[in-house]
Amino acid sequence: MNMVDYYPTEEGTEREHMEDIEKEIYADNITISYEGLFSYKELLDLINEWARSKRYFKEVLESKEKVTRGSKNITLELQMQRRIHAQYKCLLNFSLEVSDMVDEEEEIDQNMKNLNSGRVEASLKGFLMTSQRSRWETRGYVAFIRGIINKFVYKLDRPAYIAAVVGDAKDLTFKIRGFLNSYPKRNDKTKKDSAE
Asked: How far is CA 123 from CA 19, 97, 104, in A?
């Protein structure tokens, strides 16, 4: 797996490091818990395809795999970002922990497939990043006035950008939950057990 995948933005520019960025959290600790059959490879493919379709730059921050006598434990941390306006970026921090994962051969959709079984814990945080601070906070009194206006009068960030952060975080969460929850319904052995 590549440590860094680049998906071009609409403007065709590469990821840039923003100096003096301001980062506000709008999707905090959205969690997914699942235990049972799934395909780890297909889960990673789903995340990669989602990032590609939404034009996110994806970077692997941490990837650990610990193999024990009978199972695997995997930790994966991703950071994805995309530009939504000249001064605004959407940043998603995604962490995935798979514990007690074992390989199994099961019948899915009437075909035998090599799958995995274990516990999946995922969490997602969504941030809106902007370089507005460098424009506003060059003088102390301007930063103070901005803080007062943001808190009591009018939030200067545009709601459309906030909605993009929250929408993308929820969309990825729903896709992963739907993917994982589809396996018990597709497993022929589970269908037979529930029918009896």
From this structure: 27, 9, 26
